[in-house]
Specification:
By secondary structure, the chain is mostly helical. The chain is built from seven helices and no strands. It has two domains: 101 residues; 60 residues, Arc Repressor Mutant, subunit A.
Length: 189
């Protein structure tokens, strides 16, 4: 009945490490019970004059059960220490991920503001700004037209106006204008 309860906990989304500890604890208890029962049996058998070979065999079983208790107990302690370290490492990784996401959000926000400021300097209309931004995101003229619910010819015309106002020749130069400074030179290791 207790085993069914633990299996239900496992299936119901309970902490699997709790189930594992419970199972190892049960194994330790069983090995300990075997060792104790064997010790009692060896004492009783020695008092009744059972032959030495039988006593040695039961003694060996008792020692093996005791060794099993020790091995399982050490394994449980090692696993608990490892689990605690993994929990600590996981929490540190989560904190680092939150920090990185915030830094990335701030960097992207800054890049977005820089792009918008440059579009203002080039005196792009709102429609041209939207087309320019979608092109910077890598959308084709057809995809930009679909997003904006306009014709591909209109998007091509707006792209040409963006190139003329910016003094750039094509999409590659437009992308390079904004991305060139993002790529920092490599520093020797």
């Amino acid at each position: 009945m207790l085993t069914k309860s633990m299996e239900h906990n496992d299936l119901a989304g309970g902490d699997p490490t709790d189930v594992g500890r419970w199972r190892v604890g049960l194994a330790v208890a069983l090995f300990a019970a075997i060792a104790i029962l064997m010790a009692i049996d060896v004492l009783e058998d020695s008092a009744t004059g059972v032959d030495t070979a039988h006593l040695l065999l039961e003694g060996a079983v008792m020692v093996l059960a005791g060794a099993g208790v020790g091995a399982l107990w050490r394994g449980l302690r090692t696993a608990q220490a490892l689990a605690a370290k993994l929990d600590t490492d996981l929490e540190a990784a989560r904190i680092e991920a939150v920090r990185y996401r915030e830094e990335a959000r701030q960097a992207l926000q800054g890049l977005g503001q820089a792009i918008d400021s440059q579009f203002e300097r080039w005196e792009l209309t709102p429609a041209e700004r939207e087309v320019g931004l979608l092109m910077l995101k890598g959308l084709s003229h057809r995809e930009v037209a679909d997003v904006r619910s306009t014709s591909e010819a209109t998007v091509r015309q707006q792209a040409l106006v963006i190139y003329r106002k910016s003094g750039l020749r094509n999409r590659s130069e437009l992308s390079a204008f904004f991305l060139e400074d993002l790529l920092l030179p490599r520093t020797p290791a």
